Amino acid sequence: MNSETQNNTHPAALLPMLLLALWFFCQNASAADVIIPGLQLPSITSYALPSGFAGERVYANIQFVNQRVGGMTLTAKPVIPDRIEFPISSGRRAIVQVTSETPGLISFVIPAGAITGNPALLGRDGLRSENQPSFQVVTSTQLTRGVTFINRTQYLAASMKRGTVELLPSGSTGIPTGQALFIPMTLSVIPRALDVSLVRVTSTGLRVPMFNLLETVGGSVAGTRLPAFRAVQIMDRLTVSEALGAVNQTAEWVIRHRGQNRLMKVNSNGEAILEDRRLTGTLISKTYSLEEVSWPDNAASVRFTLREGASRVGETIVLHPPFDSFAANHLGHFNLNDGPFDDMPLTSGNLEVDVVTEVVPMLARRVR
């Protein structure tokens, strides 16, 4: 067989070699972003764990940045990633599912074999965002002890203290609504109380105090007497009951109107109980459920109403900081037309001897 015959190999014989070369190239070539006009994946701004090991859940804060094409900024529809791709020790990459925790926070479980490196976010229709911040994968013996705090409240967590000691890192602006932060600390089997200050940030950057929460962290690992190395603490969204003062106890409000003092008790389970006494001395008590009408993130006020069964009773109440008083014309079975001469409730105060014809709103003030 001459050299010319040897070089004329049939193309079909080269197919396996070409497929092998193509597979090798795909496994080792650097992937690139996949961009679809009108859609955008976020960027990871920070991880709520400094490092993690295979099988551990990690929280990551995300931010959407408008696309720039040819020097122009394009507004695109945000797409929450549904997968994340990690480099693994074999030289290939592993894909795991992403959970959307809040609009600004995702979580995922570190895949087996993952190594330190830059993951990629994946989304619908083949969207891909490369070069996310590097994440350090360690062994379970190299863990940093501490707590991941997830802020689901309506306000910025501006301070977190154990006694007088501030736990937020130096230079930290706090934990924004819907985001998470890992705070190194040594946990004990005895739960520790942390004082968390929530603030509203105005358009000028002023921080207005809104609430103080008491968060308890620590305790032993389930089924043991050993302290946990790491924990996740979720600061839940505030409720109307909490806004009305029912955090660790029943809140009591006095409702004053035309010389009468009535009582409203608010329980942490979302109930509001209106109490009064008629001229006969009979105690009247009626229970309503509290319903949030509007409480946007970083809002300066809360709007709520009382509900009896499927129906709203009375008007929508606006509660302003410091959340210790409000005015109303109609609250449950109390209304501005109530007077002291028609067997209406009367607990204390002076009787009005003259008929009052002008509108006199009820003033509610928290007493406990």
**Radius of gyration using CA atoms only:** 30 Å
Low-confidence stretches: 1-7, 14-30, 340-356
Counting DSSP H or I runs of 4 or more residues, the number of helices is 3
Q: Structural class, judged by helices and strands?
A: mainly beta
Q: What topology, given as strand order, has the largest sheet?
A: 24-23-22-21-20-19-28-25
Short characterization:
With 368 residues, this protein is mainly β. Helices cover 7% and strands 42% of the residues. The model is unreliable at 1-7, 14-30 and 340-356 (pLDDT under 50).
Key terms:
eight-stranded antiparallel β-sheet; Immunoglobulin-like; seven-stranded antiparallel β-sheet; mainly beta; 3 domains; 3 helices
Describe, in plain words, how this protein is organized in 3D.
The protein has 368 residues and is mainly beta. It has three domains: 36-143, Immunoglobulins (Immunoglobulin-like); 144-237, Immunoglobulin-like (Sandwich), CATH 2.60.40; 243-366. 7% of the residues lie in helices and 42% in strands. It contains three helices and 28 strands. It has helices at 3-7, 11-28, 240-243; strands at 39-40, 43-47, 57-63, 67-69, 72-74, 77-78, 83-87, 93-102, 105-109, 120-122, 128-129, 146-151, 156-162, 165-166, 180-184, 192-201, 207-217, 230-235, 251-257, 260-266, 271-277, 283-294, 302-308, 311-319, 325-328, 330-331, 334-335, 362-366. The strands form seven sheets. Strands 24-23-22-21-20-19-28-25 form an eight-stranded antiparallel β-sheet. The longest helix is centred in the N-terminal third of the chain and has 18 residues, at 11-28. It starts with a helix and ends with a strand.
